[in-house]
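Q: What would this chain look like folded?
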Amino acid sequence: MINTGAKDLGGFLRSRRERLTPDAAGIAPGITHRRVPGLRREELAELAGVSAGYYTRLEQGASSSASPAVIDALAAALRLDRAEHEHLRMLAAPRRPTRSPSRRSRLRPSVRELLAAIPGTPAIVIDHRADILAWNRLGHALLAGHIDVDAPNTRNRPNVARMLFLDPHHRALYCEWSAKAQITVAALRQACARHPADRGLERRVGELVAQSSEFARLWARRPVRTCSYYVRQLEHPVVGRVTLANETVTLPDDDQQIGLFYARPGTPDADALTLLTQSLDPWPAPEGPSRRENA
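A: My prediction, written as structure tokens:
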């Protein structure tokens, strides 16, 4: 079960308070033994300029009403980075749901056409639940050639988080699996803050917590990180080891992202992508949006 609202705000505050050492916060060591990791509640409250009782109510989930000034003061006291600060703001003032909490994301036909227009670049589209809404043929071959290419158009769409933690074929792609796992969990944490009433997202996280101890451990740490660009080494079953950059582009009018994978021209990695492209069967003529997608 996902904690939302006041409980999730309190959990995030507690995780960051326990992470912050007295030395990092500029607090002189005391003569008594510290029984808690990180700062005490009253120490953090003093740094933020709020009462200890008020801060305790926030952390215990008894209150979710915190002004922007208080949130900014807590972020400064906790030494939050920019992504964590924004996450704290979302938890303190969650948005009202703007969509049905169980509605499936729909892909605009123009985005599907865009994927088809870049056949030499692996590309996928995911939504805030990490469901794969579409991919071009090379994106499918790079990331999930072992499953049906038409899978994004079915009712049980592939999900990049589920594949990463529960699909051994997909997991084996990542030479630095731990780094990819942390980014994936952090993205889901931020999605939960943006969509606190999304039952589909809640079910997805609940499934992963129940079926993967690794996911459950990372989820409990409440990671928050914004990453739109990174470089990954993949161990691909067809072309071997390949190093690719991954650029993530957020669509302006949807809570969806396009992931693009590319290599520097003239490198062995670019040659590997060319080889992967040549290994594909001919791509059938486009038939427009899938009927199942619009059902």
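The chain has 14 helices and five strands.
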